[in-house]
Amino acid sequence: MAYTRGNLAVKEKASQERVTQQRYKETTKVVTRRTGLPAREKFLYLITLVAVILVGGVMMSRYAHIYDLNKQAQTTLSDVREAERTIADLQVEKEKLNNLVIENARKLGYVEASGKDVIFVPRSTSTTNSTGTESSSDTANK
């Protein structure tokens, strides 16, 4: 007796029945037709694609503009730092030259002015005539 799937009470089928069942095999084939997208749906997809491309282009151009502004800001900051270094160097040089002026004047024999030695020169506008003589508005009043 055959042992079939755990059940011993199953009647064994004749071998001829098995052969007759295996003579032909019925096959079915499922045919599916793909229908194309409707024109409106295609148009909707196209408009969506164009909108996405436009938004992406606008965003990329804005990021490029921001990048350019950042680059300009960095170059400006580096120029400012360089100018500050130059100004600091020139300030040091100015102090050195101011100290050298006093020393050079003493070497040449100049003496510092005291309070009664100070001479005040009035400021006047002078113009040269075509004859080469100077005329001044202050000299005409004297």
Structural class of the secondary elements?
A: mainly alpha
Give the SSE order as H and E letters.
Answer: HHEEH
The gyration radius over C-alpha positions equals: 53 Å
Number of E-state strands:
2
Mean pLDDT: 81
Q: In percent terms, what proportion of residues is strand?
A: under 5%
H/I helix tally: 3
Tell me about the biggest sheet? 2 strands, antiparallel
Unreliable stretches (pLDDT < 50, length at least 5) are 136-142
Oligomer: single chain
User: In whole angstroms, how far apart are the ends?
Assistant: 155 Å
Helix content: 55-70%
| Widest beta sheet: strand line-up | 1-2
Shape verdict: rod-shaped
Provide a concise account of the structure shown.
With 142 residues, the chain is mainly alpha-helical.
Textual characterization of the structure:
This protein has 142 residues and is mostly helical. Helices cover 58% and strands 4% of the residues. It has three helices and two strands, in the order ααββα. A two-stranded antiparallel sheet has the order 1-2. A hairpin with a 5-residue loop joins strand 1 (126-128) and strand 2. The longest helix has 69 residues, at 39-107. The model is unreliable at 136-142 (pLDDT under 50).
Key attributes of the depicted protein:
mainly alpha, disordered C terminus, 142 residues, rod-shaped, two-stranded antiparallel sheet, single chain
